[in-house]
Design a protein that fits this description.
Elements (H helix, E strand, L loop, with lengths): L3 E4 L3 H7 L3 E6 L9 E5 L2 E5 L4 E5 L10 E2 L2 H14 L5 E6 L12 H14 L4 E5 L7 H21 L7 E5 L20 E6 L1
Parallel strand pairs: 8-9
Antiparallel strand pairs: 1-2, 2-5, 3-4, 5-6, 7-10, 8-10
């Protein structure tokens, strides 16, 4: 599970003056929270809830018990760090008809939305990943998933995205969104996913 650990903005003072370390556990972009242990020679405090905080003031003293901080307190304490944090990736999905690599007319708006996201982030780190369902032979499905990825890349290039900014991958039926048995027509599996970082 992804989690972010934020250290006090006083880290330099902590190292120089031995004034301690504060750790805050905040949710990831999807709201999920992991856990972290703050350990000194005298004990350990586990943080496992959103916005929990603990402090280790000295190496030979046990860390404080967890305390939940408000969003505003976290922003006050760590605004400089939070301002430098990268945006989470944006995702877009295109769906296809069986055996086809043609972008559907109602998916054309998704090209414009993806281009807008790429422009707003000034991104040159884009993954385009083709997939298929399990209908037919996997070798053929790999080829179809490649063609689908290429179709989306071509549409993005036509909209003005630099081709050198895109990484193409294709998995055929090897990375199903909806797990199915062989030869099952599942529209959610016939897709191209774009991840913009």
């Amino acid at each position: 599970m992804i989690f972010r650990i934020l250290f006090s903005a006083l880290v330099v003072n902590t190292l120089v003056a031995c004034s301690g370390t504060t750790v805050v556990l905040v949710p990831d972009a999807n709201g999920k929270v992991g856990q972290v242990d703050l350990t000194t020679k005298a004990g350990t405090t586990r943080l496992s809830k959103a916005n929990e905080s603990a402090e280790a003031s000295k190496a030979d003293k046990a860390p404080s018990q967890p305390e939940e901080l408000s969003e505003s307190k976290i922003k006050d304490m760590f605004s400089e760090t939070l301002d430098k944090e990268p945006k989470p990736p944006e995702h877009f999905v295109f769906h296809f008809t069986t055996g086809s690599a043609e972008i559907l007319p109602d998916e054309k708006a998704t090209v414009a939305k993806a281009k807008s996201a790429i422009d707003s982030r000034n991104s040159c780190d884009i993954s385009v990943i083709g997939h298929s369902d399990t209908v037919g032979d996997n070798a053929i499905n790999e080829g179809v998933s490649l063609q689908r990825a290429d179709a989306v890349i071509h549409a993005l290039i036509e909209s003005g995205v630099d081709k050198n900014c895109m990484d193409r991958r294709y998995y055929g039926e090897n990375d199903l969104k909806i797990p199915t048995a062989d030869n099952i027509d599942e529209p959610q599996n016939r897709r191209v996913e774009i991840e913009i970082r």
